[in-house]
Amino acid sequence: MNELFDRDAGGDREQSAGDQSKPSDDQADTPAVAIEGVSKTFENGTDVVTAVDDVSFTVDSGSVVGILGPNGAGKTTLIKSILGLIYPDSGSVRINGHDISENPTAVYEDIDAMMEGARNDYWRLTVDENLRFFASVGGEHPDAIEQEHERLLRKLDLLDKRDEQVRNLSRGMKQKVALASALARDISVVFLDEPTLGLDIESSLTLRRQLRQLVDERELTVLLTSHDMDTIQSICDRVIILNDGAIVTDDTVQNLLDMFQTQEYRFSVRSLSEALAADLRERFTVTELTRYEDRTRFVVAADTSTFFELTAYLEGTDIQLLSVETRNADLEEIFMEIVE
Ligand SMILES: Nc1ncnc2c1ncn2[C@@H]1O[C@H](COP(=O)(O)OP(=O)(O)OP(=O)(O)O)[C@@H](O)[C@H]1O
């Protein structure tokens, strides 16, 4: 049940006469987002760049999907196509069953976006005024959803800032106001572009936690891009990885973590000379090695027998073993492995 916005209570969303694409009530399993064969090329002088190449996927209502990819992979072009900001050369985009090219009005009722780098809010307006403004632009009467705004601001710890001009707030707070503005009306799909960019660790953790709570409570469907894999890993249910305009991976975060599980061991030792470090690298798969004064930490990928071989090797030297921990691959490493 959507706690912040009770969609059933509004009842003022009527199907437009020309809307042939709207699902009937019994089609409750219509995906929130359905992308079918979307392609887009750009002409750069004499070059033709295929930014998005026959991309298809669906997103179930209430799930959070991270769209990842290296620079130039086609993320922005794909997202702009989903938001109706550019027309793809071919393929279709449907939001809650509405085709964006056939019925953009119905789509815009359901979707909003928080864009990175763009000024999402009016900095001279207060937090409250921004929420009211964005709700009105989306066709809602701000007085009618005053309580929802209050709840939203409370969830984001912004209630005591509601009468502050946005320009006077910290970066983390501005980011939250941008999020609140995107969620200031009763939408069901939201696109968030780099929602935690530029935040310090604590603000980023807080925003991630609050965002995930809001998503769950409002049953929002979220498409999200971020270069911060911790954000992706902690918020997303699923990731779609693009490379050269095409999907190279589409799976749940958990499956990816399980699938790429390599056993790695993090050793912390004392008295590892340069010569022994070189020898170690020669004999074993050392993936990281960092030194701090007399202490060295290194990570080795190894199966059980190699692990015992390594500990026997260390025992035969002057190296003092301080600790060994097992270490699991995180999403960042998995992402690098996939796109490389
Ligand atoms: N308006 C445009 N005109 C010409 N080429 C474009 C245009 N927009 C994007 N491209 C090209 O399409 C490809 C995909 O670009 P896009 O911006 O979608 O990638 P991205 O994954 O968002 O990259 P980044 O992470 O760097 O933002 C790139 O090769 C880019 O140069």
UniProtKB/TrEMBL annotation:
Coiled coil: none annotated. Transmembrane segments: none annotated. GO terms for molecular function: ATP binding; ATP hydrolysis activity. Residues 1-29 are annotated as: Disordered. PROSITE patterns: ABC_TRANSPORTER_2. Pfam families: ABC_tran. Keywords: ATP-binding, Nucleotide-binding, Transport. Residues 1-16 have a biased composition (Basic and acidic residues). The keyword Transport applies. Gene3D superfamilies: P-loop containing nucleotide triphosphate hydrolases. The keyword Transport applies. Belongs to the ABC transporter superfamily. This is ABC-2 type transport system ATP-binding protein.
